[in-house]
Amino acid sequence: MNRLAACLVFAASLSLSVPVGAQSDLAPSERKSSYEMMGAQSRSMQDDDMANPAMLSVLDGEALWRKPAGEDKKSCADCHGDARQSMRGMAARYPSYDVAAQRVVDLEERINLCQAREQKSEAFGRETKDMLALSAYLALQSRGMPIAPSQNAALERSIERGRAAYFQRQGQLNLSCANCHDDNWSRKLGGATIPQGHPTGYPIYRLEWNGVGSLQRRLRNCLTGMRAQVHGLGAAELTDLEAYLMWRARGMIMDAPGVRP
Ligand code: HEC
Ligand code: HEC
Q1: Which-ligand-closest: CA of 180?
Q2: What is the fold of 55-140?
Q3: Domain 3-8+33-48+147-260, CATH
Q4: How many CA within 13 A on the CB side of residue 28?
Q5: pLDDT tens sequence across 188-228
Q6: Which residue minimizes the CA distance to atom 31 of ligand 2?
Q7: Minimal CA–CA distance to 107: which of 20, 179, 16, 203?
Q8: I need a surface site. Which of 87, 153, 193, 221 has the fewest CB within 10 A?
Q9: Is the CB of 190 under 6 A from ligand 2?
Q10: 224-252 confidence digits (pLDDT tens)
């Protein structure tokens, strides 16, 4: 059975058995990362930096960090120094409110803002090899640290919007994110185990993609599976979902870059 057919059967079983989905957040004590729920093979690939294919992207990111660009030929490192210190813990508190942009931005958009404002270079597009490399390098600097959203009124509103979208039934299958990730995690769907959906490991290397991808790419995959409206990369709706997911995973340990089947 292919994944869409599996989804349809699954959706039908849900609408029969669970007329009203959960509306409350998972209790912190029941949370499990996707890493904890993965098979031994994927886990050992993620554990070993020599075997984790995302580490090649990290190496590219480190080179980009030091590469001069823009009018003044400045590199990220020229202003920020050693990322292992200056960017330690940074990715664990994104999305964050950006004062100058006056909106909540995710890690990728924050990189773009520095490219445009500070480096005056051309911004990397989302899901490009360079963007994934630089964001993987920066996310690595938060490995082992707890997810810690910052406190800000605009961020709180973004989290609330993301939360509402998360519990909203949508698309042709009339499913909400919560129907799978809160009510049915650990069940099998078309050969995949439904995880709880905590974004501790992004960007990830996904074997099915045969490459590295961002959290927004993953969210678009789920929206496609739900046959719902698939927001464009960079859309505020996706940033809101990212903000809610990071809040939902607050305190969990970052393990980027992850490996997924
Ligand atoms: C000319 C100096 C300069 C260059 C070059 C520069 N930045 Fe920045 N960057 C800054 C300043 C200043 C801030 C703080 C701005 C603020 O807090 O509003 C910042 C903030 C950031 C932040 C947010 C940090 C946080 O704690 O929230 C990230 C991420 C970042 N820069 C990444 C980069 C990357 C990646 C590059 C290279 C592509 C880069 N920067 C190039 C000056 C620079
Ligand atoms: C029909 C069930 C289903 C629905 C509905 C669904 N997902 Fe998923 N989601 C999955 C499955 C299955 C995976 C794992 C895919 C795999 O491993 O192939 C996944 C993966 C994820 C992940 C990646 C976790 C990780 O660590 O890699 C996130 C985040 C996520 N979903 C968020 C969402 C959000 C947000 C929504 C609502 C917009 C949503 N999902 C709707 C089934 C679903």
Answers
A1: 2
A2: Cytochrome Bc1 Complex; Chain D, domain 2 (1.10.760)
A3: 1.10.760.10
A4: 7
A5: 998 899 999 999 999 999 999 999 999 999 999 999 999 99
A6: 197
A7: 203
A8: 153
A9: no
A10: 999 999 999 999 999 999 999 999 999 99
